[in-house]
Amino acid sequence: MQRRDLLRSVLAAGTLTASGLPLARAQGAAWPQRPIKLVVPYPAGSSPDVVARLLAGQMEKALGQPIVIDNRAGAGGTLGTGVVAKATADDHTFLFTTQSPLVTAPLLMKQLPYDPFTELAPVTQVATSPLVLAVDPRLGANNVRDFVRLAKASNGSFNYASTGIGQATHLSMELFKTRAGFDILHVPFQSSPQAVTAMLGGQIQASFMVPGVAMGHVQAGKLTVVGVTSAQRLPGLPDVPTIAEQGYPDYESVAWHAVLAPARTHPAVLERMAAEAAKVIGSSGFRTPLAAQYFAPTGGGPAELAAIMKRESALWGKVIQAAGIQPS
């Protein structure tokens, strides 16, 4: 009897959701009730970490609570992603990651300890970025065709660096070499700085990189950028043609960042988080520094991010199969 009276009073106050859970848990002034933890499965100072901190710094003003960045780097982003996937849904834990632990890791790892499609709840895509194809200036390649010609003449002796198996820096080259018809040895590293150091030392001839990693070295004359992976030229690099412009019209590869949460996070929390993120993503205070990192803001809610994940899984599944990469 007391329980019926309680439910009646709660309903009368309009504080019960359709799912039967108190709205106080999920939205309005009562959420968030404490600092939000945003797990970034990459090292501090990495590209995802930089964008995550930029987003968090803007969003915590609107949410009225600090957003604490928790870097859980390791295993190509799957370590920290798994931490969130297995976490108790407390409505205050979120994940900021790239597409790799969400889309390509399930295609490449037989024993992936989580299922991103069932154990994580999409919130929003945040930003996208093309990669640049950076090459050792000592090669004398000034464009993509030069590089492909030299790579073919090397008879497989060229090496390329990535930031790990299944990362965009890995699969972008696998896609490109199947389109261009040359062979090059993959050398995975744990981070962009390690890959760049190997290139500067002459052990690596080429690498796909996020522009922010490459451009300081390009300006110093230590790396040459010969193309970008997007369908259109990058506004921050208007003089660098796309790979598609240089004889490979069907080539495109874009890295992206997104926010997710444990699967049982309250839907109203997901929608509120997406709505607040959309406000930030649309603001000049976010867009201007984001552009300085050569990223483009995106946005969209949970349904849009879920569709992107599904579409990208199908795309990269075909690339992995065509490249003959076996899951391990």
CATH superfamily of the largest domain: Bordetella uptake gene, domain 1
Write out the strand line-up for the largest beta sheet, numbering strands in chain order. 2-1-3-10-4-11
Low-confidence stretches: 1-29
Distance between the termini: 58 Å
Largest sheet, in brief, is: 6 strands, mixed
| Coarse structural class | alpha/beta
Helix content class: 40-55%
Mean pLDDT: 90
- Which radius of gyration do the C-alpha atoms yield? 22 Å
Basic shape: globular
- The SSE string, one letter per element, is HHEHEHEHEEHEHEHEHEEHHEH
How many β-strands, per DSSP? 11
Name given to the CATH architecture of the largest domain: 3-Layer(aba) Sandwich
Textual characterization of the structure:
There is one protein chain. With 328 residues, the protein is an alpha/beta fold. The protein is built from twelve helices and eleven strands. The protein has a six-stranded mixed sheet, sandwiched between helices. The chain has a five-stranded mixed sheet with strand order 7-6-8-5-9. Helix 7 (168-180) links the parallel strand 6 (159-162) and strand 7 (185-188). Helix 7 packs across helix 12. The termini are far apart.
